Amino acid sequence: MKNKMHSKILIEKDINPDPLLQFKEWLEEAINKKLNFPDAMHLSTADKFGRPSGRIVLYKGFDVRGFSFFTNYESRKGMQLTENNQAAITFFWSELYRQVRIEGKVFRLSAAESDSYFDSRPAESRVSAIASRQSGIVESREILEAEVKEIEQKIKGQKLRRPAGWGGYYLSPDYFEFWQGREHRLHDRISYTKIKKGNSWKIERLYP
Protein backbone atom coordinates (compact mmCIF):
# COMPACT_ATOMS: atom_id res chain seq x y z
CA MET A 1 0.00 0.00 0.00
CA LYS A 2 1.28 3.45 -0.88
CA ASN A 3 2.28 5.53 2.13
CA LYS A 4 0.24 8.72 1.81
CA MET A 5 2.95 10.66 3.59
CA HIS A 6 5.18 10.15 0.55
CA SER A 7 3.05 12.69 -1.29
CA LYS A 8 4.41 15.54 0.84
CA ILE A 9 7.15 17.61 -0.69
CA LEU A 10 9.77 20.04 0.57
CA ILE A 11 10.92 22.55 -1.99
CA GLU A 12 12.96 25.70 -1.66
CA LYS A 13 10.28 28.19 -2.71
CA ASP A 14 7.98 27.03 0.11
CA ILE A 15 10.42 26.95 3.04
CA ASN A 16 10.93 29.71 5.59
CA PRO A 17 14.32 31.46 5.31
CA ASP A 18 14.51 31.28 9.13
CA PRO A 19 15.09 27.65 10.22
CA LEU A 20 13.60 28.32 13.66
CA LEU A 21 10.31 29.34 12.06
CA GLN A 22 10.46 26.37 9.69
CA PHE A 23 10.96 24.10 12.71
CA LYS A 24 8.08 25.79 14.55
CA GLU A 25 5.78 25.10 11.60
CA TRP A 26 6.68 21.40 11.51
CA LEU A 27 6.46 21.00 15.30
CA GLU A 28 3.04 22.64 15.42
CA GLU A 29 1.81 20.29 12.71
CA ALA A 30 3.08 17.28 14.70
CA ILE A 31 1.31 18.59 17.83
CA ASN A 32 -1.92 19.41 16.00
CA LYS A 33 -2.04 15.91 14.53
CA LYS A 34 -1.74 14.57 18.10
CA LEU A 35 1.31 12.43 17.41
CA ASN A 36 2.81 10.50 20.30
CA PHE A 37 5.53 12.53 22.01
CA PRO A 38 6.02 15.19 19.32
CA ASP A 39 8.41 16.90 21.76
CA ALA A 40 10.74 13.90 22.10
CA MET A 41 14.22 14.53 20.74
CA HIS A 42 17.36 12.47 20.49
CA LEU A 43 20.27 14.28 22.16
CA SER A 44 23.77 13.26 21.08
CA THR A 45 26.79 14.29 23.15
CA ALA A 46 30.45 13.29 23.22
CA ASP A 47 33.16 13.26 25.88
CA LYS A 48 36.54 14.96 25.64
CA PHE A 49 37.90 11.99 23.68
CA GLY A 50 35.09 12.18 21.12
CA ARG A 51 33.29 9.03 22.31
CA PRO A 52 29.59 9.66 21.56
CA SER A 53 26.45 8.71 23.42
CA GLY A 54 22.79 9.39 22.79
CA ARG A 55 19.44 9.32 24.54
CA ILE A 56 15.89 10.63 24.18
CA VAL A 57 15.02 13.74 26.19
CA LEU A 58 12.05 16.09 26.13
CA TYR A 59 12.32 19.39 24.30
CA LYS A 60 11.10 22.25 26.47
CA GLY A 61 10.96 25.16 24.06
CA PHE A 62 13.09 27.50 22.01
CA ASP A 63 13.83 31.20 21.76
CA VAL A 64 16.45 33.29 19.96
CA ARG A 65 19.18 31.47 21.92
CA GLY A 66 18.18 27.96 20.90
CA PHE A 67 16.50 24.74 22.06
CA SER A 68 16.13 24.02 25.78
CA PHE A 69 16.03 20.84 27.86
CA PHE A 70 16.59 19.94 31.52
CA THR A 71 18.65 17.28 33.27
CA ASN A 72 21.08 16.53 36.09
CA TYR A 73 24.37 18.39 35.57
CA GLU A 74 26.24 15.39 37.00
CA SER A 75 24.59 12.82 34.73
CA ARG A 76 26.58 11.26 31.91
CA LYS A 77 25.28 13.78 29.40
CA GLY A 78 25.85 16.63 31.85
CA MET A 79 29.46 15.60 32.43
CA GLN A 80 30.04 15.22 28.69
CA LEU A 81 28.60 18.67 28.02
CA THR A 82 31.03 20.08 30.59
CA GLU A 83 33.93 18.44 28.73
CA ASN A 84 32.66 19.12 25.22
CA ASN A 85 29.73 21.43 24.59
CA GLN A 86 29.28 20.43 20.94
CA ALA A 87 26.05 18.46 20.59
CA ALA A 88 23.27 17.49 18.21
CA ILE A 89 19.53 16.93 18.56
CA THR A 90 17.17 15.05 16.24
CA PHE A 91 13.38 15.09 16.00
CA PHE A 92 11.65 12.26 14.13
CA TRP A 93 7.93 12.23 13.39
CA SER A 94 7.37 8.90 11.69
CA GLU A 95 3.69 9.49 10.93
CA LEU A 96 4.63 12.62 8.97
CA TYR A 97 7.70 10.95 7.44
CA ARG A 98 9.79 13.87 8.69
CA GLN A 99 13.05 14.40 10.53
CA VAL A 100 14.90 17.50 11.71
CA ARG A 101 18.59 17.44 12.63
CA ILE A 102 20.08 20.35 14.58
CA GLU A 103 23.72 20.86 15.57
CA GLY A 104 25.47 23.48 17.69
CA LYS A 105 26.96 24.36 21.06
CA VAL A 106 25.24 23.84 24.40
CA PHE A 107 25.17 26.32 27.28
CA ARG A 108 23.45 26.36 30.66
CA LEU A 109 20.25 28.29 31.25
CA SER A 110 20.26 30.78 34.11
CA ALA A 111 19.56 29.61 37.66
CA ALA A 112 16.35 31.66 37.64
CA GLU A 113 15.11 29.88 34.49
CA SER A 114 15.96 26.49 35.96
CA ASP A 115 14.20 27.39 39.22
CA SER A 116 11.10 28.51 37.34
CA TYR A 117 10.86 25.29 35.34
CA PHE A 118 11.60 23.10 38.38
CA ASP A 119 8.81 24.81 40.35
CA SER A 120 6.35 24.11 37.51
CA ARG A 121 6.89 20.35 37.62
CA PRO A 122 4.58 17.97 39.53
CA ALA A 123 5.67 17.40 43.13
CA GLU A 124 6.48 13.73 42.43
CA SER A 125 8.81 14.69 39.60
CA ARG A 126 10.57 17.24 41.80
CA VAL A 127 11.11 14.62 44.50
CA SER A 128 12.53 12.24 41.89
CA ALA A 129 14.99 14.91 40.72
CA ILE A 130 16.09 15.50 44.31
CA ALA A 131 16.50 11.77 44.98
CA SER A 132 18.22 10.72 41.76
CA ARG A 133 21.98 10.73 41.39
CA GLN A 134 21.36 10.37 37.67
CA SER A 135 23.61 7.89 35.83
CA GLY A 136 25.12 6.74 39.14
CA ILE A 137 24.90 3.08 40.19
CA VAL A 138 22.11 2.02 42.57
CA GLU A 139 22.10 -1.52 43.96
CA SER A 140 18.39 -2.19 43.58
CA ARG A 141 14.99 -0.72 42.82
CA GLU A 142 14.06 -1.21 46.48
CA ILE A 143 16.92 1.02 47.60
CA LEU A 144 15.90 3.73 45.15
CA GLU A 145 12.28 3.68 46.33
CA ALA A 146 13.37 3.70 49.98
CA GLU A 147 15.53 6.77 49.35
CA VAL A 148 12.59 8.54 47.70
CA LYS A 149 10.35 7.79 50.71
CA GLU A 150 13.02 9.03 53.09
CA ILE A 151 13.31 12.31 51.21
CA GLU A 152 9.51 12.67 51.09
CA GLN A 153 9.39 12.35 54.88
CA LYS A 154 12.36 14.66 55.43
CA ILE A 155 10.96 17.51 53.35
CA LYS A 156 7.29 17.00 54.16
CA GLY A 157 5.55 20.36 54.32
CA GLN A 158 8.59 22.21 52.97
CA LYS A 159 9.04 23.93 49.63
CA LEU A 160 10.69 21.55 47.15
CA ARG A 161 13.74 23.50 46.04
CA ARG A 162 15.71 22.75 42.91
CA PRO A 163 18.91 20.78 43.63
CA ALA A 164 22.05 22.73 42.74
CA GLY A 165 23.10 19.87 40.45
CA TRP A 166 19.95 19.95 38.33
CA GLY A 167 18.92 22.48 35.71
CA GLY A 168 18.52 23.54 32.13
CA TYR A 169 20.58 23.83 28.98
CA TYR A 170 20.01 25.31 25.56
CA LEU A 171 21.56 24.26 22.29
CA SER A 172 22.56 27.27 20.18
CA PRO A 173 22.15 26.01 16.58
CA ASP A 174 24.53 26.63 13.71
CA TYR A 175 23.18 23.88 11.43
CA PHE A 176 19.73 22.50 10.58
CA GLU A 177 18.65 19.78 8.20
CA PHE A 178 15.01 19.22 7.32
CA TRP A 179 14.24 15.78 5.88
CA GLN A 180 10.97 14.95 4.16
CA GLY A 181 10.43 11.37 3.03
CA ARG A 182 9.47 10.85 -0.61
CA GLU A 183 8.71 7.88 -2.84
CA HIS A 184 11.47 5.58 -4.09
CA ARG A 185 13.84 6.96 -1.44
CA LEU A 186 14.28 10.20 -3.38
CA HIS A 187 13.84 12.11 -0.14
CA ASP A 188 13.97 15.89 0.22
CA ARG A 189 16.84 17.19 2.35
CA ILE A 190 17.26 20.92 2.90
CA SER A 191 20.12 22.22 5.05
CA TYR A 192 20.62 25.59 6.73
CA THR A 193 24.19 26.54 7.66
CA LYS A 194 24.69 29.64 9.78
CA ILE A 195 26.80 32.33 8.15
CA LYS A 196 29.38 33.54 10.65
CA LYS A 197 29.01 37.20 9.79
CA GLY A 198 25.51 38.41 10.54
CA ASN A 199 22.53 36.32 11.49
CA SER A 200 21.66 34.77 8.15
CA TRP A 201 21.61 31.20 6.86
CA LYS A 202 22.90 29.50 3.73
CA ILE A 203 20.22 27.19 2.35
CA GLU A 204 21.16 24.18 0.21
CA ARG A 205 19.51 21.03 -1.12
CA LEU A 206 21.33 17.77 -0.35
CA TYR A 207 21.28 14.50 -2.23
CA PRO A 208 19.01 11.96 -0.48
Care to give the gist of this entry?
The protein is an alpha+beta fold and 208 residues long. It has helices at residues 19-32, 76-83, 111-120, 123-131, 141-154, and strands spanning 40-46, 52-58, 67-72, 86-93, 98-108, 166-180, 188-194, 201-205.
Any descriptors?
208 residues, Pnp Oxidase, Chain A, 8 strands, 5 helices, 8-stranded antiparallel sheet, alpha+beta
How many structural units, i.e. domains? 1
Query: For this structure, what is the CATH homologous superfamily?
Result: Electron Transport, Fmn-binding Protein, Chain A
- Mean pLDDT metric: 93
Fold-level CATH name: Pnp Oxidase, Chain A
Coarse morphology = elongated
Q: Which architecture per CATH?
A: Roll
Could you characterize the architecture of this molecule?
- By secondary structure, the chain is α+β, with helices and mostly antiparallel strands.
- The chain has a single domain (4-120, 165-205), classed as Pnp Oxidase, Chain A, CATH 2.30.110.10.
- The protein is 26% helix and 32% strand.
- Strands 1, 2, 3, 4, 5, 6, 7 and 8 form an eight-stranded antiparallel sheet that branches.
- Strand 1 and strand 2 (52-58) form a beta hairpin.
- The longest helix is centred in the N-terminal third of the chain and has 14 residues, at 19-32.
- The model has no long low-confidence stretch (mean pLDDT 93).
Write the layout of secondary structure elements.
Elements: H1 19-32, E1 40-46, E2 52-58, E3 67-72, H2 76-83, E4 86-93, E5 98-108, H3 111-120, H4 123-131, H5 141-154, E6 166-180, E7 188-194, E8 201-205
Antiparallel strand pairs: 1-2, 1-4, 3-6, 4-5, 5-6, 6-7, 7-8
Helix pairs in contact: 4-5
